[in-house]
Amino acid sequence: MSDLTAALEREEHELVFDEFTHTTAWELGCLITEVALEAGHAVGIDIRRHGLVLFRSALPGITADQDEWIARKAAVVLRMEASSALVAARFTERGIDPKTGGWLGSEYAVTGGSFPIRVRGGGVVAAATASGLSSRDDHDLIVEGIRSYLAATADGGV
After folding, report:
1. Is the overall model pTM greater than 0.90, yes or no?
2. Chain segment 54-95, per-residue pLDDT in tens
3. Are strands 52-58 and 44-49 parallel, antiparallel or unpaired?
4. What is the DSSP secondary-structure string of 14-82?
5. Cβ(69)–Cβ(113) under 8 Å?
6. C-beta separation of 46 from 59 below 8 A
7. What order do you get walking across the sheet with 16-17 strand by strand?
8. Pick from 115, 125, 120, 123: which is nearest to 146 by CA?
9. Is pLDDT above 80 for 147?
10. Short-list 147, 111, 154, 142, CA closest to 46
11. How many CA atoms lie within 13 Å of 93's alpha carbon, on the beta-carbon side?
């Protein structure tokens, strides 16, 4: 296992929610949006369950193309129950092209930027996604937001 894959797997084991409601999605989405605004990022941010968008923000400078990337990255998370960055790293490690062999069609984007919302004892219930930066930066923005949210709620904040 590569160092990247191991680090991505650690993130997923660490960043687990006790519960995840529509209010949680709103608060988390607003927090990630604030981080992106402060950094001057032109990104779209989305939190969704299967078939239901729970939060969406479109910061100045994004294009309609980001909407497509968000949907495709989130589809990877909701199907594979792992971050789109981790799925990409695993495929790369194994020398597999996810577009061949019937793995994933054009409705999936195997690239960083979407992260699973995992509830303790309940599994993956949603995907939080960013698009507009590099794949790694999109991933890091979402992870930073989730990490901050979980830390704040553990301290009684948010």
Report:
1. yes
2. 999 999 999 999 999 999 999 999 999 999 999 999 988 988
3. antiparallel
4. H-EES---HHHHHHHHHHHHHHHHHHT---EEEEEETTEEEEEEE-TT--HHHHHHHHHHHHHHHHHSS
5. yes
6. no
7. 16-17, 114-119, 123-131, 44-49, 52-58
8. 115
9. yes
10. 142
11. 12
What kind and span of H or E run contains 98? none
Q: How distant, in Å, are the alpha carbons of 38, 97, 155 from that of 20? A: 25, 33, 17
In this structure, what token pair is assigned to residue 144? 């930073």
Q: How many CB atoms lie within 10 A of CB 96?
A: 13
**Token digits for 75?**
């589809």
**In the structure encoding, which two tokens stand for residue 67, read together?**
């909407």
What tokens does 13 get? Answer: 């084991």
The residue behind tokens 């969704």 is 48
